[in-house]
Amino acid sequence: MRAPLRFVLAAMLMLAAGPVLVVPVLVLPVLAQPVTDAARGNISASEMELQATLRGDIIRGRITIPDSRAANLIQPEGREWREFHNVTLGWIGGIAVLGMLALLVIFYLARGKIRMEGGPSGRTIQRFNWFERANHWMTASTFIILALSGLNITFGRYLLLPLFGPEIFAEATQLGKIAHNYLSFPFALGIVVMFLLWIRDNIPNALDVAWLRAGGGIIGHGHPPADRFNAGQKMIFWITVLGGGLVAASGYLLIFPFFFTGMQGMQLALIVHGILAVLMIAAMLGHIYIGTIGMEGAFDAMGTGQVDYNWARAHHSLWVEKEVVRARSTIDGTAKPAGAD
Amino acid sequence: MARMKFLCDADRCIECNACVTACKNENEVPWGINRRRVVTINDGRPGERSISMACMHCTDAPCAAVCPTSCFYTTADAIVLHDKDLCIGCGYCFYACPFGAPQYPRVGNFGGRGKMDKCTYCAGGPQADNSQAEYIQYGANRIAEGKLPLCAEMCSTKALLAGDGDIIASIYRERVQKRGYGSGAWGWRTAYRQDVSV
Ligand code: HEM
Ligand code: SF4
Ligand code: SF4
């Protein structure tokens, strides 16, 4: 690889260039008067590259091999994509993820765990059935692996490579990439099922405006009325469904490189994928917080599927009322209260 | 140390593809991969030029900057090489590269593209110089033998120049002086932020 060959090179190039080399190089710029050969068309590489850079264009030509991408001679905007990937995405991702973590820590220190008012009643009510929970956990677990393997693609070389060395890091990144590619399928399926299961209860309405005005009851005490999902949960729903949908769509463009789109499309897909991914990760950190250490009684909804009556009444008063009415109406009409005989 | 570059004098290139063939043969490049190619712009119109293009071994190389596993390195002669054992085939270098140099052995089902391959400036890879392992993964290492890349050596019209940047630029300038025209050093502004003004 080393090249103790400067003289060899110089000698060969002199041979190649022939006798013209004897002209002193320094006086050349003064002599410069290129003759225009009109029929050939006078074009300038430097000018074309400058124009392509300014316009975000590709200098394309004709090629005699089947790979049509090879006909792109120069695509200067690759440098812009590099700038996005190395600088912009780094900042957006860093601020979104670390910023959200910092906010949650501050919130926890200031507000602590949100307790159930009046404590648990001991009576429970079914909130999510096994199918809803299974789908939620399939989506959630694959999301976490997708997020970690994705963040590793963006930040691993700065954070993990120095810790583990190139061989181990490359091996882990390769495995992460395979996981990222294949787990995208259960993740995308989970998003679709979630959409179908819960869209009915997630249409925004006037209640949500009132709920948001009241700050969701997080600040202060009284709980604004809410149906099966309150405005906060609806926001998580739409972030998941729309964000997850777009992340999946852009991700599938990336998994099948150049199948659906060209160079600029691939770069754009990565930009969309990267930005939405880090924003979703930030939103999901908030979601995970409120579903676990942030609020007493919340985890049960996705754990056992049974939530405490008091929790349900506080956060989903209208939903509880409907459930109670529904439960009553399903009781057989001939049933009599105990001791009626 | 030299600063190795390529310069294609498009006013001499006759699109014979000798450079492409030389590269394929010297490095046993597999079917479907082209480390070097000849692109004709303005085909059949005024301003038609053919340019032989491969990795330009950029200054502050974009491929190296975006690689998630940081598998690129630059030799003392400023040749940009990479370690295939660390490559995960993500394709990022291809998105960042201004010249479409990185190539992949597979088209990519579910992201599996295989290890990236590109022009090594006939300088092999990280393995021991001119070892069997190096040859299988990266091809020839002519630089270690004190020779220039074979594409430029085989160029039938001496359009494609390889060697120290200052030397090949001065050769090109003199040609332009003598014949009175020249479309410039293709890719130099993009790769080296420099152009060969005459
Ligand atoms: C649902 C389907 C998804 C598919 C098909 C998909 C596919 C991909 C692909 C092909 C890449 C390029 C890197 C590589 O080849 O390994 C990538 C990068 C990435 N993905 Fe995904 N992904 C999906 C979901 C997600 C999700 C849910 C997240 C985050 C929560 C995510 C986060 C990322 C990040 C951060 C990157 C790196 C972006 C960059 O550095 O430019 N992906 N994804
Ligand atoms: S031409 Fe492409 S592959 Fe070669 S050094 Fe420049 S960016 Fe990297
Ligand atoms: S394809 Fe390989 S060399 Fe290119 S950026 Fe990805 S890991 Fe790096």
Automatic annotation (TrEMBL), chain A:
What cofactors are annotated for this protein? heme
List membrane-spanning regions: 7-32, 89-110, 137-159, 179-199, 236-260, 266-290
Give a yes or no for keyword Heme in this entry: yes
The lineage's top-level taxon is Bacteria
Keywords tagged on the record: Cell membrane, Electron transport, Heme, Iron, Membrane, Metal-binding, Transmembrane, Transmembrane helix, Transport
A Pfam family annotated for this UniProt entry? Ni_hydr_CYTB
User: What protein am I looking at?
Assistant: Formate dehydrogenase gamma subunit
Source organism (scientific name): Humitalea rosea
UniProtKB/TrEMBL annotation, chain B:
- Which residue ranges does the record assign to the 4Fe-4S ferredoxin-type domain? 4-34, 78-107
Looking up InterPro entries in the UniProt record yields:
4Fe4S_Fe-S-bd (IPR017896), 4Fe4S_Fe_S_CS (IPR017900), ET_IronSulfur_Cluster-Binding (IPR050954)
- What Pfam families does the entry give? Fer4_6 (PF12837)
> Does the UniProt entry include the keyword Glycoprotein?
no
PANTHER family assigned: PROTEIN NRFC, PROTEIN NRFC HOMOLOG
Annotated GO molecular function terms are: 4 iron, 4 sulfur cluster binding; metal ion binding
Which organism does this record belong to?
Answer: Humitalea rosea
| UniProt KW Nucleotide-binding keyword | no
UniProt protein name: Formate dehydrogenase iron-sulfur subunit
Q: Which UniProt keywords apply?
A: 4Fe-4S, Iron, Iron-sulfur, Metal-binding
